[in-house]
Amino acid sequence: MALLNEVKSELASVETDLPAAKMAQAATMMRFGGGLRPVGNKAVIRAQFDSLEATEWLRKTIAHYFQREAKVTKISRQTPNGIVQRYDLLVERGATALALQTGLLDRRMHLVEGLPAEVISGNIAQVKAAWRGAFLARGMISDPGKSSYLEIICPSHETVTALQGAARRLGISAQARKVRSSERITLRDSDSIERMLMLMGAPRSAREWTGKRTDGEARGKANRLANFDDANMRRSAKAAAEATQKVKQAFEILGDDIPENLKAAGDLRLQHTDASLEELGRLSNPPITKDAIAGRIRRLLQLAAKTKRAQEHQQDNE
């Protein structure tokens, strides 16, 4: 539980100047925390969270970006494990307009079953913000040393599907599962959990989770780079770094004279220096296979080498 609080505290402190990312996070938090609902003869937005910092982030965002007032109430509930604190956020005035602004209602005034289309089809910053918002609202993570999982309880099957698609865009595979009546999306691979924490904006918690997990598994005798899988990761990271340097040199040699598909592949390599070829293929628009992205980068480097030889030959003749 302590680690969960630390993760949510770190995520709630993430700062972004991108309005679209703020809107994506706010919309997802409201959707997963409760959402638009009728109360008497009017509609309100009500969402409940277990983190005061997450609640305050949403309240401030609603005030600053949407000019709406949100009230926060502390709720204490007795459970078999003791008293549980929750924080209830309520928007009464202008709730319908806020739902339209954030995409919780579509243009036909229908409730969106999953996540707003502009969020799930938005840029990578919006995708990361959506996962961050969902985790802040309903996320859980295992304590180090136990069976690894990162899990989010989802309000509907459509929201599960939306988060699965968002995870794929980040190069991560997430599984849907149903526990009694609740829909959930789960990561169980330790490396995927670490990577998702980093992408959501919690690098400190990711390092802590990984370090404690490693200490528990190896009793302090080795860290992650000591095993075979991590040796492969290290080799992959080295290869990616070398490829990034070669792409930089290729861009310098070729200047603006680069075919668009090869330039796009090179740009992806420069933008995601630690990503695998498979992840780069998923990040392509439209997505392509690992072999296809590798082929494009290879042709880019070959074109640069050919151009450099031609330039050197021309200089020798002069």
Please provide a written account of the structure:
By secondary structure, this protein is of the alpha+beta class. It has two domains: 2-217, Endonuclease I-creI, CATH 3.10.28; 227-317, no CATH class. The protein contains 13 helices and eight strands. A four-stranded antiparallel sheet has the order 1-2-4-3. Strands 5-6-8-7 form a four-stranded antiparallel sheet. The radius of gyration is 23 Å and the shape is elongated. It starts with a helix and ends with a helix. Residues 219-226 have low confidence and may be disordered.
Name the descriptors.
318 residues; alpha+beta; Endonuclease I-creI; 4-stranded antiparallel sheet; elongated
Write the layout of secondary structure elements.
Blueprint: H1 2-12, H2 19-33, E1 36-39, E2 42-49, H3 52-66, E3 71-79, E4 82-91, H4 95-102, H5 117-120, H6 124-138, E5 139-141, E6 150-154, H7 157-169, E7 175-179, E8 182-187, H8 190-200, H9 203-218, H10 228-254, H11 260-271, H12 277-283, H13 290-317
Helix pairs in contact: 1-9, 2-3, 2-6, 6-7, 8-9, 10-11, 10-13, 11-13, 12-13
